Each structure stands twice: as structure tokens, then as C-alpha cells.
Model the fold of this input.
Amino acid sequence: QVQLVESGGGLVQAGGSLRLSCAASERTFSSGTMGWFRQAPGKEREFVAAISWSGRITYYAESVKGRFTISRDNSKNTVYLEMNSLKPEDTAVYYCAASNTRLVVTTQRRYDYWGQGTQVTVSS
Done:
């Protein structure tokens, strides 16, 4: 059974930090690229960050570049999203996703497995 389980969301004040984690089943994690997406109320889900299977290549949405950092620990089958200098517009449900490709992809349709999401709320 393929599973992705996110954790680490919560309520934080603007300027604060949070670290999201996504634990994956071994089969999912060894597949390739991992990514984070988010969906704010009333908006479509959007790409946030992606990391290659080796961890050497990362890619970020312009809106989070310089504030968020994606990383992975393959020994723990876990991917992380470190979020700093949070803004109210970062408020959203954050989803972890796994792709079977080793290309660093940013489009949702290239991801094969999805977690249930974790809520991040940034107050002003």
C-alpha cells in the first residue's frame, strides 16, 4: 500500500517558521522525485517545491524561493519542507507528493501519489 503522511502543520504568526515532514512507504520513496504543493481557500492547488531522488537538485516556486527549503532523508523515507519568514499568503493546506520519474517535475499530473495534506495557517 502506497502511503504518504504529512505532519508539522499548525498556526504560526507572520515571520515565524514551521517544518513540515512527509513520511513515505519505502516503495513510494524509492520511486524518484518528491514534491510539495499547497492549496489556499478558494484557489487551485499550486506547486511549491520539488527535490530529486538524490537530493542534489531542488526547484522552488518564485513565491517561496529564499524562504522555503526542501530536503529529504532517504534513510528515513522522509521529505521535509522548512518554511521561514512565513506570510499570511502562505496559509494553505500543504500536500506531499511522489513521482515515479527521476526528473524534477513541477506539474501535478506528473505526480503519482499524494498525501492527505496538513493545514498551515499564518496569522498577521
Summary: The mean pLDDT is 93. Residues 36 and 79 are 9 Å apart (CA to CA).
